[in-house]
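Tokens for chain A. Residues wanted.
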């Protein structure tokens, strides 16, 4: 299942956006208002839970300096990645696209598609808080 949030223009340089996103504690700023728990475990992992949902641990899988950050589920039970691609528009403006890619059976995909789409949309909208 692949979901892409609307691209968001951010009034920050590519380097500043990359720096913000690679500091995982900053993801708390991007989370929806329905966040129930947020905890940085270490420099490469954080945990979050939305109200009524199970806790999810995300870990840094890879990054390409100033261009891309890939976070993924720390558990193999629900394998997915959350990718941020950063493109420079001008030296002081960047475009960020967030995408979700997961491997789920058809029933699971049907159940989580709407909540994940909404979650990705919120993350994208909140990029303006950088």
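Reply:
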């Amino acid at each position: 299942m692949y979901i892409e949030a609307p691209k968001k223009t951010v009034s920050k340089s590519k380097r500043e956006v990359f720096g913000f996103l690679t500091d995982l504690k900053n993801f708390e700023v991007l989370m929806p208002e329905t966040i129930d728990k947020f905890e940085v475990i270490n420099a490469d992992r954080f945990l979050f839970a939305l109200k009524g949902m199970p806790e999810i641990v995300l870990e840094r899988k890879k990054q390409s300096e100033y261009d891309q950050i890939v976070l993924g589920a720390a558990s193999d039970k629900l394998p997915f990645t959350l990718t941020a691609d950063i493109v420079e528009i001008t030296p002081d403006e960047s475009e960020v696209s967030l995408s979700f890619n997961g491997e789920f059976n058809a029933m699971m995909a049907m159940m989580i598609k709407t909540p994940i789409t909404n979650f990705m949309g919120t993350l994208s909208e909140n990029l303006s808080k950088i």
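The longest strand covers residues 80-90. Residues 2-129 form a domain with the Alpha-D-Glucose-1,6-Bisphosphate; Chain A, domain 4 fold (CATH 3.30.530.20).
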